[in-house]
Amino acid sequence: MELTVEQYAKHFDMALHLQSSTEADIRAHAQRAREAGVAACYTNSMWTPIVAEELAGSDIRVGTAISFPYGCTSTALKFAEIEEGLSLGATAVDMVINIGRLREGDDAYVRREIEGLVERTQGRAISKVIFEVCFLTDNEIARLTRICCDADVDYVKTATGSEGFPTEAQVKIMRDNITNDHTLLKVSGVPRTFTMPATLWMIEKLGVSLIGTRSAAKLIAQYADLLAGK
Question: Is 94 a known active-site residue?
């Protein structure tokens, strides 16, 4: 079934995580996200109230990234950052796992952080767990996906967009290890730009529900032109 422009747009999260961003940059980014009608607009946590202000009255989620991009702040700091983000208006929260702990086989540590994310966001925001698959083996990707599903995370996400791009095989491993009817799949990574045909292929053939990219507004405009026969 062909997606409408509005349906296509809701398959995108639009993020801006540049260290050099000014408030004016963030406001412009949020305004572009609003005009494009994406699913969520993400920034680093200090900009959350600015994004919430710009998106007020819309159905676009206010996204904040936790322990981004490395995932190796302490559990206590991650939980504090989640709570602060929620208090500032975040309605979508993406947390990077502690990659080293997962690679060591300390699943209990990783599970505790993921369960803490779900506990704090439940009923207040959607939860997403960021893997950074370029550092992980196939077994680690599968194991982490199942841990996330056990915790009832809303989305499992391939990468931060700062390190590497997931392969088709890695995306399929995540998809094939989703063990519940609730958890969905988000793809993000380097390069930060996607072609429109590639996004449609991911949505239709790989079961990807969300794509994270700064190029979302451009892709949505291209799709609108496609449907209009331009």
Answer: yes
